[in-house]
Amino acid sequence: MSEYPPAPGDRKGHQGPDAPLPEASLDLALMDAVSDAFQAAFLIYDRNDELIFASRSVTTFLPLPLEHFHRGNRLRHLLGAAYDLGLRAGEPDTALSRDEWLTRQIATNWKERYEAQVSEDGKRWTRFSKRRLPSGYGFCIMTDISEQKRREEQWRADVERVQITEEILDNLGHPVFVQDRNLQLVAVNKVFCSALSIGADNALGADLRRVFDAELAARLQAVSRDVLESGLTASITQSMRLYGDPPRPILVHVQRVGKPGRYFVVASLGEVGAIGTVPVVAIPSAAEPSPPAPSARPIRPDRSLAGRKALIVSGDRRFEAAALDILELLGLDSCCVRGEDELQAFLDAARSVRVTIDLAIVDTHADPRCLQVLQAAEVDYASIAENDVAAELAFIVLERLADLRRRPEPVDDWEISTDHDLAAPEVPEPHSPAPQPVSSLVLVAEDNEINQIVFSQILEGLGYSYQICDHGEEVVRLWAELNPAVILMDVTLPGINGFEAARRIREAAGDQAEGTPIIGVLAQAFDRDREACYASGMNDVILKPLSPDVVEQALMRLVPQVARATTG
C-alpha cells in the first residue's frame, strides 16, 4: 500500500495526468501572481514527477520551448531538454553522461530540502530552492540573485581596498589623515595617532576640532573645503605641537582624490625643513603695531635668494603690503597681480622676455582660476591666508627656495608692463646660447586611487614637483604640454594602456636624440611585461609595491641632474 495519497489525475491502471479533481484544483492565476510578486519562477510536480504547474516566468531561467512546461510533462523529460541545451552549470563533475546527470538531478528533487546557487556565464546567478512535501508534492523556486552576488563581490572588494589602504597609510613615515566630503575623519595612520597622542577610535568619525585646537582646526578645515570644491592641491605652513614637543612650523599638503560624488581630502604633515641660520619672527601688521620681543631679531635678507623672483596674487591691499615687506627682507624681487586676466597677461609678458617666476604667493581668497593659470604655466606656488602671512610666509619661501642655487644677476631690471601697446624690451644677445633649464616635473600615469596617494606621498617626501593623470590619452597630452623631466607609467591605464601611450610619445618625439625618460610601473615581475615595456620605448622598469628608495634610485639612474637639484 502506498504511503502517499493518490495524486490528482491518477486512475487505476493508468499513469499520466487527467482532469484535476475539483478539491485539488490550483488557481493558476493566483500562482502566477505570487510568482511575479516574489520575482521568482515556480515549478510544481506530483509524486510521479509530473508537472502540475509552471509559472510564466520559468522560461527566463530555463529557455526551453513552451511544450516542455505543459501540465503532465515528465520532470525527467524537462531536465533532459535542459541538458541537451547545455544548462548544466553548478555540476562539479563535467564528465558525467546524460543519464548520470539526470539521475543526480532527480535525486535532488526528492530531497526534503535542497539549495543550490549556479551561474552559466559567471555573470548571471540563479538560486534553486527545492522542497519535497510529506504528501509527495514537490516544487522548485528559481530566483535571480545576480545583483546580490554583485553586492557581495563589491563588499569584499571594498573590504580588501580598506585593508590595503590602512596598510599603506600605516607604513608611511609621516602623519596622514583623510576626510570625507563632510570633512569628517575617515582614516588616520599610526604615525598621525602617535604624533597627536590620540587613538584612532577617538579620531575617526569626528572633525578636526577633536584633534587640533579650535583655531588651527578652523584653518585646516577652510583649506580642506577649498581643495574639496576646487580640486586644486594646496600647501600651507602651520605651527603645531607634535609628539609632545614645543610648537614648530609644519608643512601641510592637502589634495583631493576619488571620483565625483565620492571625493576625499588627503592631508599629510611634514617638517618644514632646514631654514639655515636665518632667525624669523612674526612681523606685526600696520593696523596692530606691537613692539618686538627683547630677544627677537628681525628677518635678515638671505643673500642666497638674491635675484630670485616672486609673484604675489591677491586683490587685498593689506595682504599685498605684508607679503611685499617680507619678500623684500628675504632679498627677493617681487611684484603683484590682482586677478586672473592680469596674471595671465603678466606671465605671457614674462615669458616673452625670458623671465622666470620662481614662486607665486597666492592669497587663499584669490580667484581659484588663478591657480589653474599658474599650474598651466608650470609656476610653483604656495597658498596662504592673510592672517598667516606675518608668521608663516618666510618659512614657506625659505622651504621652497633656500636650496636653489643663486642665479646670475640679470642684465636689465625685470619690471614688466602688461600694456599691450608697449613693445617688449630688447634682450642683449648672449655670447653663447644658454642651455635650457632642466624640467623638474615628474608626470605620473596611474588610475588606481590608492596608488595615486602612494605616489604623491613618496614624491612629496623626496621633494619633487609632480602631476598625476589617470588615463592613457591624458598622459600623452600632458607630456606634450608640460615637457616633464620623467614619466612614471603604469601599464594598466584606461583608454590606451601604458605600452601604447609610451609608443605614441616616442613616435611624437620623432628623431630627438634624448626623449623624455619613461619608467614602467608593473604589478608583476613577468618577463613578457618587462620586454613589452622596453619594446614600447620605456627606459626602465620598477615593481609595485612602491617604496621611496625604489623610486629615488630609478630617478637617480635616469634623471640624475633633476634628482641632485631636488635633494640639494
CATH class bucket of the largest domain = Alpha Beta
Structural class: alpha/beta
Helix content: 25-40%
Whole-number total of structural domains: 4
CATH fold type of the largest domain? Rossmann fold
Q: Which architecture of the largest domain would the CATH scheme give at its second level?
A: 3-Layer(aba) Sandwich
Rg over CA atoms: 36 Å
Tally of DSSP β-strands: 19
N/C terminus separation: 99 Å
How many helices? The count is 18
Q: Overview of this structure, please?
A:
- This protein is of the alpha/beta class and 568 residues long.
- It folds into four domains: 22-144, Beta-Lactamase (2-Layer Sandwich); 150-271, 2-Layer Sandwich (Beta-Lactamase); 303-401, Aspartate/ornithine carbamoyltransferase (Rossmann fold, 3-Layer(aba) Sandwich), CATH 3.40.50; 441-567, Rossmann fold.
- Helix content is 36%, strand content 20%.
- The protein contains 18 helices and 19 strands.
- The strands form four sheets. The chain has a five-stranded antiparallel β-sheet. Strands 7-6-10-9-8 form a five-stranded antiparallel β-sheet, with helices on both faces.
- Helix 9 (317-329) packs across helix 12 (389-401).
- The longest helix has 26 residues, at 146-171.
- The radius of gyration is 36 Å and the shape is elongated.
- The protein starts with 27 loop residues before the first helix and ends with a helix.
